[in-house]
């Protein structure tokens, strides 16, 4: 049977990025035959090393090459030797914005056997999906600084929100909610303070919601939401929120669902006008880089999301199941290295 | 002995506000003699009812009266019958801004006997103070909406940060840190995305920090900070952060330290050019208003902060100790009403 060929761009990045990506690819190779998939991989040398060497973060020519790919797998970017924001804005956010990744999809799910810091909480209590807006809000980079370094300095940051941008992400969130058993969508914002942006989100939720009578909707201020994540995570099914609030609440989501080593994400362009990009939520963790200590599970779960995105749902389920089985046994297994975890999961998907 | 007379403005506000404020005042009256204090109370009818009656949130004349007071105690404002933001912006935030409450002081402390949702955490693990900026950042109200209601709508919110505003709150935070045993100050921001504002905070931390060699400093992105609040709260001693990040992390702080029913705060004008205002972190909770279900402890702890602010440290310690003793016994006491809790604590401080 002819297998489908997928052009896969790989951006290992900095710190533990290359290590966890290697395990993600290992699992991808292991599951590919069952999904009748062949991956044509291109690896892109982007991140701190390149910046030190050339001063480049994401050259236009590389961005154009990325546009020609089907899908992207990214490890992590950022290093203390590079001024804060340089790689984040110049590489990671630039990719999200240029490739119109307007949905930043972040499941928050507690797998059986995984330790949560919350007392008395079971896997049934934590199972949600956060749909974070990915291309506007406070992440636009709009703003500036006046009289820098003087006592009269003024530094501004502007959150820009458009009807176009808000509607498309809310519509996507309704679709996700409609596909899930509970069919509940919660908007998280701060509409009592950020009144202009909050009002746009609220009106759009109401208007688009009229097309989804089967989905119940709810609203929660971001400050209260963080409290409910810790005290009452059952409250949430699908959450839609802006770029910055989504950044914050998905880290709490990771914390309650067993830690950043398990949190996967997809930067999705649902209209498929450009390739989507899958990456673990964690950063480059330079302090543990190169020691085989990083947990590749978040990257492997991101690979499952990648498989879903390219239409290989059955392969995605196999990877998820393998991860779930591996997690269920971890407590009994003792410490394993990055590649030992990758090997074990790869073995399960192929076996 | 002549007692000192303090002009106290009381804003009971909406929902459970009046109920919890009544208990706060009960405790204040009970502790006053020992502090040689006499309070000259003026109650201000502000909140949802007044807005419905007159359309006013905070009339200029009332604001001027408030300026003439020594200190303010506020319950809570906000009601679902009033458009979101009307009272928050028109009353609460207006007071904070007009009276230059540039320090929003929020202790996060787990008292012995209090249940935390975190597994395996003891009171020694959670003892920090968040110094939240209170007069700028994304709370300025700067921003607007263009082409409202059309598909071309644009809604903006601007975070405005000044050298003046950032320096004074950071300086205050260093003073707090220097007064505590651990002497550790952590800046929480998002300087890899909000580069202009984050850079101003970072440079100011470094510059002011040179004057406090005894205080160690640290930086944490807001998303990671929320994760550490849940997984590693021991990491924090004093935290300084902007207005919006402070709003969010102090709600997680409340969640890990036993819930919003216990979280106190002070909107402080350290230069004493206008009265400071003390209030529980919680909102007006209209769903449980008038039922005697609200926990007045957060308001009573806010009263302790108020006492500290007016120089009645000994009375403040008595209130804190009474709360601490009450909390230690709560587990054994079963459900009590709002006024029963207030009575019990008042009895302890006077007895
Ligand atoms: C690295 C940083 C720019 C990024 C973000 O803020 O989006 C990260 O925290 C994330 O959540 O993917
Ligand atoms: C009611 C609201 C405007 C307020 C804030 O955002 O500051 C509240 O959440 C708080 O933390 O005091």
UniProtKB/TrEMBL annotation, chains A, B:
Required co-factors: Mg(2+); Mn(2+)
Listed Pfam families: Iso_dh
A GO molecular function annotation here is: 3-isopropylmalate dehydrogenase activity
Catalytic class of the enzyme: oxidoreductase
User: What EC number(s) has UniProt assigned to this enzyme?
Assistant: 1.1.1.85
Q: Which UniProt keywords apply?
A: Manganese, Metal-binding, NAD, Oxidoreductase
> NCBIfam families, per this entry?
PRK03437.1 (NF002898)
What name does the UniProt record give this protein? 3-isopropylmalate dehydrogenase
What is the organism field in this record? Actinomadura verrucosospora
């Amino acid at each position: 049977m002819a297998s489908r060929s997928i052009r896969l761009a790989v951006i290992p990045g900095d710190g533990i990025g290359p290590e966890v990506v290697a395990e993600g690819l290992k699992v991808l190779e292991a599951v590919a035959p069952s999904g009748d998939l062949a991956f044509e991989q291109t690896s892109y040398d982007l991140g701190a090393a390149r910046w030190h060497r050339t001063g480049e973060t994401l050259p236009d020519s590389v961005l154009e090459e990325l546009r020609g790919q089907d899908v992207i797998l990214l490890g992590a970017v950022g290093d203390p030797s590079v001024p804060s924001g340089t790689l984040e804005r110049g590489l990671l956010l630039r990719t999200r914005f240029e490739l119109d990744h307007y949905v930043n999809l972040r499941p928050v799910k507690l797998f059986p056997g995984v330790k949560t810091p919350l007392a008395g909480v079971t896997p049934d209590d934590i199972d949600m999906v956060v749909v974070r807006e990915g291309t506007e809000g406070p992440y636009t980079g709009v703003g500036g600084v006046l009289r820098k370094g003087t006592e009269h300095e003024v530094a501004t940051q502007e959150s820009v929100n458009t009807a176009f941008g808000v509607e498309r992400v809310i519509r996507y969130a309704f679709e996700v909610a409609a596909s899930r058993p509970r069919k509940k969508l919660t908007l998280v914002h701060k509409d009592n303070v950020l009144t202009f942006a909050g009002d746009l989100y609220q009106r759009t939720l109401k208007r688009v919601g009229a097309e989804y009578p089967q989905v119940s909707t709810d609203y929660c201020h971001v400050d209260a939401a963080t409290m409910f994540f810790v005290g009452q995570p059952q409250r949430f099914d699908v959450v839609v929120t802006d770029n910055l609030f989504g950044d914050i609440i998905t880290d709490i989501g990771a914390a309650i669902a067993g830690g950043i080593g398990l949190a996967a994400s997809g930067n999705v362009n649902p209209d498929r006008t450009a390739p989507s990009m899958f990456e673990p939520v964690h950063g480059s963790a330079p302090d543990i880089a190169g020691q085989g200590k990083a947990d590749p599970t978040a990257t492997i779960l991101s690979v499952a999301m990648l498989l879903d995105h390219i239409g290989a749902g059955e392969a995605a389920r196999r990877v998820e199941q393998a991860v779930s089985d591996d997690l269920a046994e971890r407590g009994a297994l003792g410490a394993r290295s990055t590649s030992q975890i990758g090997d074990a999961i790869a073995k399960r998907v192929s076996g």
